[in-house]
Amino acid sequence: MSEEVQEEQELVAGELPPVESVEELSCIIQALVFASTEVVTLKKLKEILGDFLDQAQVSGALRHANEQLAKIKSPFEIVEVASGYRFRTKNVYYPYIRKLFPDSNPRKLSLAALETLSIIAYKQPITKAGIEAIRGVMCDAPLHNLLDKKFITLGQRADTVGNPYTYITTEEFLKYFGINRIPDDLPRLTEFSDILNSDFLIPQYPIQKQMPEQIPLQESTKQLEIPLEAGE
């Protein structure tokens, strides 16, 4: 058995050595993010490396990683999304990658679904009645569409007459749009249509195939809801 293999086995079986530099932390985080099929959260990094880690240290290590990747003109970068970290290819290489996945169709949305998703993203948690008060029309079909695509899910019941369900965006929504924090990273309302209908998005993770749980969409439309203020 070679010394290198023996050392690797000892690392797996025993305590991990202390991280001694930003460069070393940067390499470890890159390895973990590269190997993971899901976004790697700060919580997961702490579980692996220890509670000494904080957001500032991880952010510094990722800046260092991206600086090194830029120096070698790498087509990859590490980004923060859905409260975690993942690799992605730079936008300039999209036309080539799109040809690699000719059967991967972006999940385009109708205008009605787009408007509904925009309202939920900016006003969540919000009831069906609240959405309809803003849009001025019924939204059963758009809600079913968004639930099926796993962009939204049920939130808590509202403390209003009838205690209707509210709707909120999901982690799948964050991943698909490359959003880390709401509302800070949300695109402008006028950008939603361009993003969703530009053939620019390819899912970064396998889409869950199981159907979402049946969601009750019938709600009282007679509740008092606060519409969007002028200019919002």
Explain the overall architecture:
The chain is of the alpha+beta class and about 230 residues long. It folds into two domains: about 5-100, Orthogonal Bundle (Arc Repressor Mutant, subunit A), CATH 1.10.10.10; about 110-195, Winged helix-like DNA-binding domain superfamily/Winged helix DNA-binding domain (Arc Repressor Mutant, subunit A), CATH 1.10.10. Helices cover about 45% and strands about 10% of the residues. It is built from ten helices and six strands, in the order H-H-E-H-H-E-E-H-H-E-H-H-E-E-H-H. The strands form two sheets. It has a three-stranded antiparallel β-sheet. A hairpin with a 7-residue loop joins strand 5 (about 150-155) and strand 6 (about 165-170). Helix 2 (about 20-35) packs across helix 4 (about 55-70) and helix 6 (about 110-125) crosses helix 8 (about 140-150). The termini are far apart. The model is unreliable at about 200-230 (pLDDT under 50).
Mean pLDDT: 76
Unreliable residue stretches: 199-232
What structural category do the secondary elements indicate? alpha+beta
How far is it from the N-terminal to the C-terminal residue, by CA? Answer: 66 Å
User: How many H/I helical runs?
Assistant: 10
The biggest sheet, with number of strands, parallel, antiparallel or mixed sense and barrel status, is: 3 strands, antiparallel
The top level CATH class name of the largest domain = Mainly Alpha
Q: What is the N-to-C order of secondary-structure elements (H for helix, E for strand)? A: HHEHHEEHHEHHEEHH
